[in-house]
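Holo prediction — zinc ion.
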Amino acid sequence: MPKQTTKSNAKRYEQQWDVPSESDRAAYYTVSLTQEGQLICSCWPFLRNRQPCKHIRTVQSGQIAARGQPVAAPPAAPAPIRVSELRLVLANVRCVTPVADQADAVICEVKVPQMPAGNEHFLLTVLHDLSQIGVPWSALQKRYRLPKELTLDWVLQYVRDYGRLIYGPLRDGKFEGWEYLPPEGV
Ligand SMILES: [Zn+2]
């Protein structure tokens, strides 16, 4: 067993990021994820206002790897999606397909497939995918006129257990049947 190095901050914070200062390339600010799930920063504007600063926003956007994480790893706190700006657009897509704004990689539009009549597994897959993107359950209940008994937890559990069902490949403007993606592929 390798001897573990003692880090004084390891207990206090779930994760930490070193965000380079914009004005001084050699300087860094430390953004920390507290055990309560809050992101805090060591910069002055944050310490003064306790409002998310640009360093926290940089961490939230996933541009910086956490300490001890490979560079491509996403941060522990997922980048919040600006749900109010999400547009759900009906499209000829095999499954829920987010479209990201090239400039800032924020999802601005979601292409949603036409719902086939009477295919519950397909509907549950669409609900699962949209909720994962950040569409609130209440909005989905309204849009798809879902029965009150159906809960988000149930939908997520269903897809974890049974996988996803999407349209087959598009041929001559029509989808060829279905494609089943088992739980391992979810
Ligand atoms: Zn800051």
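READOUT: Residues 29, 41, 43, 46, 53, 55 surround zinc ion (CB under 6 Å).
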